[in-house]
Structures are given as structure tokens and as C-alpha cells.
Specification:
InterPro entries: B-gal_1-like (IPR026283), BetaGal1-like_ABD1 (IPR048912), BetaGal_gal-bd (IPR048913), Galactose-bd-like_sf (IPR008979), GH (IPR017853), Gly_Hdrlase_35_cat (IPR031330), Glyco_hydro_35_CS (IPR019801), Glycoside_Hdrlase_35 (IPR001944). One of its GO terms (molecular function) is beta-galactosidase activity. Keywords: Glycosidase, Hydrolase. Belongs to the glycosyl hydrolase 35 family. This protein has 10 helices and 31 strands. With 580 residues, the protein is α+β, with helices and mostly antiparallel strands. It has 3 domains: 316 residues, Glycosidases (TIM Barrel); 97 residues, Sandwich (Jelly Rolls), CATH 2.60.120; 122 residues, Jelly Rolls, CATH 2.60.120. Strands 4-5-6-7-8-9-10-11 form an 8-stranded parallel β-barrel, surrounded by 5 helices. Strands 28-27-30-25-14-31-26-29 form an 8-stranded antiparallel sheet, with no helix packed on it. A hairpin with a 2-residue loop joins β2 and β3.
Length: 580
């Protein structure tokens, strides 16, 4: 069992330096877990670190999911097979630029629930989840012959709150389930006091300024082993921003400082992967910053698992301190499959009854109140007034297409500076439709209780409007019927392509504006061509098949494109986009 004494970690009674890399199993196709882990081992690392996202494993209250991308037990077995140690971070909250920081959105249905606190309703939900999750880890503890050497209690809690009773409750959950393993907390140097427990090891998260960080740790907990639970070697991107990179030699230089101090290190990220589906998070500071689909993170492996220059520079440093293995040569490949003609299309308005869940209510309900986690919600009501009516868009989260009597009027976005919209209603009786997209809940900071959809009724023309019809559209099911009369976007655009040699590829969305792409029913994630910096979506080979494959684009804003291209390399940088 891992212990710490005399400022060092010991495993089996011998000094043990943790050399770890972060891989999130839920961001990597299971067929590729072994490939990524072999590359980690070939670098010279001895340990893998992963988060466990609550909302991925309990997407609806009481409905648990542990298959496919969510099969954490198979991931653990894969680590064990390759003789890699494992650090598991199953905190109720993980941040990780993941939807709502891993917390399930159904927690927001009861607005009195106090997240990440010792409030009783929240703790009951955590305990019921842990009663299912934590027993899965016990057979895999190191002392039981498994790879797990350490587990995290909560994640960067000092940057959120100071409820010590909450941290102690989580610690007691490990004890309740017999998880006698090494426990730790992790925080930035400025927040470790509020995020730590006295009898639990404190670790640090940072990307530079090694001496300052460890001096702060020594000042707070003298004699602590020096562990960087997250050594940030890159960074994540948001829509409308630049693609973040960090110079490989500079990252290697800081790593060398850590090795000179015999520090334990976890590279965040060793391999970032992809925010498939609707699972990207967002940051909300001065404004709302939704994270892109790629979680490339400028890490040691690219989004599709290729070795980078940064990987090579780190290995040069590491080889000065330990004997590193030979390089692992991957057999994975990437193909360009060319253009795919989109032969069928249908407006989302023509298939609402097939893909949506309908509900009527006196007032519009938020997505959470509709038991909807992500995707889109269509709100519809009658406006029995004629003329120009004005309303503020504060109630819309996050982006909305507005229609009057079936005609598109405008799109509004949470970051619009002008929050006032005037709409012309031409008839005495009109139909108002608001098609709202959830672009990812905040995963960090004060806006964690980030409800989506229409979060309260709109005050239109100096009055409220009642009696709403709503359709929840999570796109768990795609339309089978491509026959319809409505020509409005959003639309489903469908085409097929033939594959003889299955490999990874990238969907080039040039000419499209905003939406999601599905291959053989699997949601590759979001695109937003005008915003960038991401202009392609990674389509992993395991989601293709020999023979006929189906590609469906959900285009929100409108396009004249009748084909889409599958190319060999990603485009993850600004490219010139003409204004609408």
C-alpha cells in the first residue's frame, strides 16, 4: 500500500516516485485504451491518472451506465494488464472542462440543493451514487492485487468552498466501502488550505513556478511529499478563442526542475482525447466561454493519439533520471475518405414527435425541470397581439433561434452585448417559437448551478405569456423518416460512404455553420465553423465499419452545402471565415 513518510512516497516499503499521465477513459474510444496506455508506458511513466464523471455514470437519477466509453472496470483491467499503477479521482465534482464539472444536471431540478456542500439532500444523492460506484474499485486496490494506489477525495475544493464537513463526509464514504487506500486532495497553491484535510495528504496543481508552489506547501503542511497532481503542460480551448500551445522545450524545462527535486508528477494531460456528444463544459467569468469538442490540450499525445514533439522532449529529460523503455510503434492510421454527398434532409420541425419528448406547462420550464440533460429545447406559445413587442434575452441559456409564424427572425446568444430584442408580430394571433441550445454547463467557479433552456418566463411587450408547449431534444435517437414539408433550419442532412480499410478520419465542416455530426449513430460532437479554432471533428476508426457507413449532420444555422469531406489531418487553428 502507498504511504508517505519523510517527505517521500513508499510502496511495498520502498521509495516510490509517482510518474503519471492523465488519460480520461470517457474521452477515448475503448478500442484505443491499450494503444494510449502503451505509449504512456513507453515514455517511462509508471502510473495512469483518471477522473470519474458522475454525470456519465448516472445520467438520469437512479439509471447507471458502465458500458462502452463508461466501462471504467475494463479500463482498470487494461491498466493492470500493462502493469501500470492507477490513480482514481472519483470526486462528485471533477472540473476537467467537462459538462457541469461531472455533476449530473438533474441535481439542478431542486434549486434548494446546495452543490459541493454538506447539505443533506446533496449528500444523499452522493451517497446513493457512491453505493453503486465505490464497491467497483475495491477488488482493484493495490493490496488486493489491483493497480489502484491512490484515490482523491474532492477536486480543487479550495477554489470553490470551505465546508470541511463535506470533505469529511466523502472521506467517510471511502471508509464505509472498505477502500483502505492512499487518499489525497489537490488544489492550486493559493487554495490548498480550504481544500485540504488535516490527516489527508495535500497535493498541488500548477504548470510552472515550482519553487514558489512547494514553498507554499511546506509553509502549510511541513514535511509533505512533493506531488504535482496536475502538471499543466498545455491548456484547453474555447469557441471563439485561439488554439493554446505550450513550447515543448519550456514544458520539459519545468519538468526537469521537478525531477531534480525527486517530485512525483502527473502530466495533465498525457492524452486529452475528445468531448464527444454534448459533454463539453464551459467557463463563465466576465462572459460565457464554452469549451470546444477537441480536448487535444496540446498534451503529449494529440487528440487522435499521435506522439508529439513535447512527448519526445519529455522523454529526453526522463531518460536522464531513469532507464526508459523503447518507443512503442503504433499500428493506428488515418485515412481521407473524400467527399460524401448529402442525399437526404429533413427539418427538425418535421420530426419533433419522433425525436423529442413533448410537455405542456403554464410557463416555460428549464431543461432541468423537463428532466433534460443536454441538447436542444423547442419552446412554443401563442401571442395574441399585433405589432412590435420587445423582451430581454436574460432568460435564454445559451443560444436561441427565434421564429414567428414559422419564419426565422434572428439568433440570440448569451454573450450578446445588446440584451434587448424587438419582434414584429404581423397578425392578431401569432405563433412564437424559441429553439434553444445548451452549449455546455459551467464546469468551474461561481456559476456551477448553470440551468439551461428558458430559465424563467419571458417578459414580452410588458407582459408574461402563458401556456407553453415544449419539446426536449437530446438526440439520443435520430430520425428514420426524412420526409417533410418544412424548409426551416435546423435540419438533419444525411449521406453515406463506403469504407474498405477502416481507419481514423476527420470531418471537415467548411461551408457548414454550427451543429453536431453523427457517424453510424455516434455523436462526434459540436462544430462552430465561424468561431473556431476547431474546424474539423475527429472520427475514430472504431466508430466506422467496413462497407456502408452513415453520416448525419445536424446543421442549426443553415447551409447551401450538399457534401462534406473526410480528410486525413485535423484543422485546429483560425481560418478565414466570411461574415454572414
Amino acid at each position: 500500500m502507498l504511504i508517505n513518510k519523510e517527505e517521500k512516497f513508499y510502496l511495498d516499503g520502498k521509495p516510490f516516485q509517482i510518474l503519471s499521465g492523465g488519460i480520461h477513459y470517457f474521452r477515448v474510444p475503448p478500442a484505443y485504451w491499450k494503444d494510449r496506455l502503451l505509449k504512456l508506458r513507453a515514455l517511462g511513466l509508471n502510473t495512469v491518472e483518471t477522473y470519474v464523471p458522475w454525470n456519465f455514470h448516472e445520467p438520469k437519477k437512479g439509471q447507471f451506465h458502465f458500458t462502452g466509453l463508461a466501462n471504467i472496470e475494463e479500463f482498470i483491467k487494461c491498466c493492470q494488464e500493462l502493469e501500470l499503477k492507477l490513480i482514481v479521482r472519483p470526486s462528485p465534482y471533477i472540473c476537467a472542462e467537462w459538462e457541469m464539472g461531472g455533476l449530473p444536471s438533474w441535481l439542478l431540478k431542486n434549486q434548494e440543493t446546495i452543490l459541493r456542500s454538506s447539505e443533506t439532500v446533496y449528500l444523499k444523492h452522493v451517497e446513493e451514487y457512491y453505493d453503486v460506484l465505490l464497491p467497483k474499485f475495491k477488488p482493484f486496490l493495490y493490496q488486493n492485487g489491483g493497480p489502484i494506489i491512490a484515490m482523491q477525495i474532492e477536486n480543487e475544493y479550495g477554489a470553490y468552498g470551505n465546508d470541511e464537513a463535506y470533505l469529511n463526509f466523502l472521506k467517510q464514504q471511502y471508509e464505509k466501502h472498505g477502500l483502505e487506500t492512499f487518499l489525497f486532495t489537490s488544489d492550486g497553491p493559493a487554495f490548498m488550505k480550504q481544500g485540504s484535510l488535516e490527516q489527508v495528504t495535500t497535493t498541488l496543481n500548477f504548470g510552472s513556478k515550482v519553487e514558489e508552489a512547494f514553498e507554499a506547501l511546506d509553509g502549510y503542511k511541513p514535511g509533505s511529499p512533493k506531488m504535482v497532481a496536475e502538471f499543466w503542460i498545455g491548456w484547453f480551448d474555447h469557441w471563439g478563442g485561439k488554439h493554446h500551445t505550450r513550447d515543448p522545450k519550456e514544458a520539459a524545462r519545468v519538468f526537469e526542475e521537478l525531477m531534480d527535486r525527486n517530485s512525483s508528477v502527473n502530466f495533465y494531460m498525457f492524452h486529452g482525447g475528445t468531448n464527444f456528444g454534448f459533454m463539453n463544459g464551459a467557463n463563465h467569468y466576465d462572459q460565457y466561454y464554452p469549451t470546444i469538442t477537441s480536448y487535444d490540450y496540446d498534451s503529449l499525445l494529440t487528440e487522435n493519439g499521435e506522439i508529439t514533439e513535447k512527448y519526445k522532449e519529455i522523454k529526453k529529460i526522463l531518460s536522464q533520471y531513469i532507464e526508459t523503455p523503447e518507443n512503442y510503434v503504433s499500428k493506428l492510421k488515418t485515412n481521407a475518405y473524400g467527399d460524401i454527398t448529402l442525399t437526404e434532409s429533413v427539418s427538425i420541425f418535421d420530426v419533433l414527435s419522433e425525436i423529442g419528448v413533448k410537455k405542456q406547462h403554464l410557463t416555460p420550464l428549464s431543461m432541468e425541470s423537463l428532466d433534460q440533460s443536454f441538447g436542444y429545447t423547442l419552446y412554443r406559445t401563442d401571442i395574441n397581439r399585433k405589432g412590435t413587442l420587445t423582451f430581454r434575452t436574460d432568460s435564454i441559456r445559451d443560444r436561441c433561434h427565434i421564429y414567428i409564424n414559422g419564419r426565422f427572425e434572428k439568433t440570440v446568444y448569451i454573450n450578446d452585448l445588446d440584451k434587448e430584442v424587438s419582434l414584429n408580430f404581423p397578425n392578431e394571433n401569432n405563433v412564437l417559437e424559441l429553439f434553444v441550445e445548451n452549449m455546455g454547463r459551467a464546469n468551474y467557479g461561481e456559476h456551477l448551478t448553470d440551468q439551461k433552456g428558458l430559465v424563467h418566463n419571458i417578459w414580452l411587450g410588458e407582459q408574461y405569456w402563458f401556456n407553453w408547449e415544449m419539446y426536449s431534444i437530446e438526440l439520443q435517437h435520430l430520425p428514420k423518416n426524412y420526409i417533410g414539408e418544412d424548409q426551416r433550419f435546423p435540419k438533419f442532412l444525411k449521406g453515406s460512404f463506403h469504407v474498405d480499410d477502416v481507419a481514423d478520419t476527420f470531418v471537415d465542416l467548411k461551408g457548414f455553420k454550427k451543429g453536431n455530426v453523427f457517424i453510424n449513430g455516434f455523436n462526434l460532437g459540436r462544430y462552430w465553423e465561424k468561431k473556431g479554432p476547431q474546424h474539423t471533428l475527429y472520427a475514430p476508426g472504431p466508430y466506422l465499419k467496413e462497407g456502408k457507413n452513415e453520416l448525419i449532420i445536424v446543421e442549426l444555422d443553415g447551409t447551401q452545402q450538399t457534401s462534406v469531406s473526410l480528410i486525413e489531418k485535423p484543422i485546429l487553428h483560425p481560418r478565414e471565415i466570411k461574415s454572414d
